[in-house]
């Protein structure tokens, strides 16, 4: 008597996906927690060891964003091709193990009290190199672990893994840093090892196409950019996120608010970072069971406007509890935009170019985050921390209105299908 194999109705019923989920959670927790502590350490060293003013130290945070973005800008096209030519599990695992070395280096220098800006900038740049290769490989693995019909729900669960890591990492690392300064870096090393072991244990992924190995790498890079350019909805979503977050990102200045405006220290900084992720995680949990299906373009535009408005509200708040609330709402709005963009990338991109398209999307995300940190640092030097955040949030709203006009495909997009429908 033959036993019928039941069709999975949830990504979590699939062993390979569960391994991917664990790897993503561990890697995000390790990375985000470490980045938060590097930022706080750098700002603290600039203030205490170098005698910089709040404005000068804020500018150093802007430089930190640029230092982390530089390798992303230079290496993203290469990373996308690598993800399409080499076993993606190996690429992601090797990247995680290199991040272990970065964490160990930071832990040792912190233990020895080598309080130097060049040291922190150097390790931040190495971490940026690692991230640029891990990102496209991990993003391209996910759709291969579930049937196509479960991809939207998998994206919701992916976001839960990411946001859970973003919540737990900064909050826990703030307390770890207060308890013992090297502890966050030792923790990162452990979790990146877990990520590497989980990702290499995934089985039965599609083999790398023979044509992908034969094609010229430069030709592959060009083809990836051409694919995105001709997908107007995809291009509009990626560039909207790029410019809106570039202006609206308040993350870089959180150490300033934690230390000198709200006066809550590294523990408070952890809660601030976690609040943003908590709002995003709640929305991600909802979307994993009830994914968006209709009027996705308008919903994304409204979400980005809400993101900008909550950024302004956070900038003017002087009450810690209110600041946490505004950050949570900011994260919730951002999650809707992220879900729509990621669903579009995964559902419209053929597997043979998924690594390159994921790399381009990752480049836009990194540009918005790291260059946004640089913009925030420069704006803070000119306008002060509060002025910079308010200016950025307002700019994000203006950019959204402009993009709604430049890319009517976004306004008229009803579903994630390959063809968008215009309103009558």
List the helices and strands and how they pair.
Elements: H1 15-48, H2 54-85, H3 88-111, H4 117-141, H5 151-179, H6 183-200, H7 210-214, H8 217-230, H9 232-248, H10 254-261, H11 265-289, H12 296-316, H13 320-348, H14 351-406, H15 408-412
Helix pairs in contact: 1-2, 1-4, 1-5, 1-6, 2-4, 2-8, 2-14, 3-4, 3-6, 4-14, 5-11, 5-13, 8-14, 9-13, 9-14, 10-11, 11-13, 12-13, 12-14
Give me some keywords for this one:
mainly alpha, Growth Hormone, Chain: A, disordered C terminus, 424 residues
Q: Any overview of this molecule?
A:
The protein is 81% helix and 0% strand. The protein has one domain: Growth Hormone, Chain: A (Up-down Bundle), CATH 1.20.1250. The longest helix has 56 residues, at 351-406. It has 15 helices and no strands. The N and C termini lie far apart (56 Å). The chain has helices at 15-48, 54-85, 88-111, 117-141, 151-179, 183-200, 210-214, 217-230, 232-248, 254-261, 265-289, 296-316, 320-348, 351-406, 408-412. With 424 residues, the chain is mostly helical.
């Amino acid at each position: 008597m033959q036993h019928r194999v039941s069709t999975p109705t949830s990504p979590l019923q699939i062993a390979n996906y569960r391994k991917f989920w664990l790897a993503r959670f561990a890697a995000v927790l390790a990375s985000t927690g470490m980045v938060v502590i590097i930022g706080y350490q750098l700002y603290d060293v600039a203030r205490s060891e170098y005698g910089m003013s709040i404005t000068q130290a804020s500018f150093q945070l802007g430089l930190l964003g640029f230092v982390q973005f530089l390798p992303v800008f230079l290496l993203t096209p290469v990373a996308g091709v690598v993800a399409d030519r080499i076993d993606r599990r190996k690429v992601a695992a090797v990247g995680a193990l290199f991040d272990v070395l970065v964490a160990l280096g930071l832990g040792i220098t912190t233990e020895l009290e080598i309080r130097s800006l060049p040291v922190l900038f150097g390790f931040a740049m190495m971490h940026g190199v690692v991230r640029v290769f891990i990102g496209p490989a991990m993003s391209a693995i996910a759709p291969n672990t579930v049937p196509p019909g479960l991809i939207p729900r998998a994206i919701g669960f992916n976001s839960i893994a990411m946001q859970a890591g973003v919540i737990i990492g900064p909050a826990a690392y703030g307390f770890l840093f207060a308890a013992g300064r090297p502890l966050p870096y030792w923790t990162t090393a452990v979790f990146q090892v877990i990520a590497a072991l989980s990702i290499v244990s995934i089985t039965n992924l599609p083999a790398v196409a023979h044509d992908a190995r034969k094609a010229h790498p430069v030709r592959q890079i060009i083809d990836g950019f051409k694919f995105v350019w001709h997908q107007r909805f995809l291009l509009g979503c990626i560039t909207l996120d790029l410019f809106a977050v570039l202006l609206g990102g308040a993350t870089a200045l959180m150490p300033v608010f934690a230390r000198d405006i709200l006066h809550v220290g590294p523990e408070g900084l952890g809660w601030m970072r976690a609040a943003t992720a908590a709002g995003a995680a709640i929305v991600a949990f909802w979307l994993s069971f009830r994914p968006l299906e209709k009027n996705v373009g308008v919903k994304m535009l409204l979400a980005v406007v809400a993101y900008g408005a909550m950024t302004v509200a956070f900038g003017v708040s002087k009450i810690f509890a209110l600041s946490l609330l505004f950050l949570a709402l900011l994260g919730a709005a951002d999650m809707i935009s992220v879900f729509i963009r990621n669903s579009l990338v995964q559902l419209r991109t053929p597997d043979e170019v998924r690594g390159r398209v994921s790399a381009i999307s990752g480049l836009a995300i990194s540009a918005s985050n790291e260059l946004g940190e640089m913009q925030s640092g420069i704006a803070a030097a000119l306008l002060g921390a509060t002025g910079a955040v308010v200016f950025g949030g307002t700019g994000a709203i203006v950019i959204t209105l402009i993009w709604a006009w430049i890319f009517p495909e976004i306004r008229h997009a009803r579903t994630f299908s390959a063809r968008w429908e215009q309103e009558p």
